[in-house]
Amino acid sequence: MINGKRIAVVMPAYNAEKTLEQTVSEFPDLVDIRILVDDHSRDQTADLGRKIGLHVFQHDRNYGYGRNQMTCYREALAAGADVVIMVHPDYQYTPLLITAMASMVAYDVYDVVLGSRIIGGHALALQGGMPLYKYVSNRALTAFENLFLRVKLSEYHTGYRVFSRKVLIELPLLENSDDFVFDNQMLAQCVYFGFRIGEVSCPTKYFKEASSINFRRSVKYGFGVLGTALQFAGQRFGILNLPRFRKEGRKLETAGDEYYERRAGAAQSASGR
Predict the structure, then answer these.
(1) Matching CATH number, 7-246, of 2.40.50.140, 3.30.40.10, 3.90.550.10, 3.40.1010.10
(2) In sequence order, what DSSP letters do the residues of the chain get, joined into one string?
(3) In this predicted model, what pLDDT tens digit does every residue of 155-174 receive, in sequence order?
(4) Total-model pTM
């Protein structure tokens, strides 16, 4: 708990058995709620999560990274979280920054905080093992998005994010993709609805066990990012009228949970450590 606010960490997982325990071992004691959502992994991610004391939800099939995050946020809200940290369980981002990032939201400095791999300079990202093509594409896509969203962020593609409860309740998240571009669409929504966004420099680690999308899916994601930026601009100028950017769009509380099991007492047990 920070400043009287309950802190939740959520991890959208797929085949994260090899890195999950190492990631969780760096969680600070102030984390009140620890949730893992398993997107129908082929390994023992879910079983390991239960073994190390996480509250685990399992999808009945592989729905995608975006849907995984939706489940993460819905269950964190149901468990009473005031501040929600999303971090990938592949140990590419250090959980040692949770306290600093969560505090910025808990003390109402920002509504959203991003752990940026870029803000510390290109050397930090490349020394951490980020492939050169990913670094270049990250910078190019970010420049394009900053131009069309009319903000100045160092990157939009990090897997380390903090949100206030208000953000997660008010954004029409169910209007977003089930795929990787969900991340980008969600940030575009945050900008569109006027939420305050801050950034913290975060070192990154690329290694064999760390999850990473392949080149083909990276290209698909890149085109999705470009499309999101253009849709944002079209909405802003009144050319488009997309549910994603309307307050009446579908929100988390309007969704059913038929694609995963919510065990009795799940929200209560999620708050235990």
Answers:
(1) 3.90.550.10
(2) -BTTB-EEEEEEESS-HHHHHHHHTT--TT--EEEEEE-S-SSSHHHHHHHTT-EEEEBSS---HHHHHHHHHHHHHHTT-SEEEEE-TTSSB-GGGHHHHHHHHHTTS-SEEEEESSTT-HHHHHHTT--HHHHHHHHHHHHHHHHHHT---S-S--SEEEEEHHHHHHS-GGGS-SSTTHHHHHHHHHHHTT--EEEEE--B---TTS----HHHHHHHHHHHHHHHHHHHHHHTTS---GGGSTTS--GGG---TTB---TTHHHHHT--
(3) 999 999 999 999 999 999 99
(4) 0.91
The pLDDT of residue 128 is: 73
As beta bridge partners, residue 9 has 34, 85
CA gap 19, 25 in Å, rounded: 10
Q: How far apart are the C-alpha atoms of 76 and 184, rounded to whole Å?
A: 21
Domain boundaries, the chain: 7-246
Nearest to 141 by CA among 231, 197, 221: 221
Q: What is the pLDDT of residues 50-89, one digit of tens each?
A: 999 999 999 999 999 999 999 999 999 999 999 999 999 9
CB atoms within 10 A of CB 200: 18
Token pair recorded at residue 147 = 């131009």
pLDDT, one tens digit per residue, over 19-37 is: 999 999 999 999 999 999 9
Between CA 4 and CA 6 the distance in angstroms is 7
Measured in degrees and rounded to the nearest 5, phi and psi for residue 131 equal: -60, 145
**7-13, strands of its sheet edge to edge:** 55-58, 33-38, 7-13, 83-87, 160-164, 112-116, 197-201
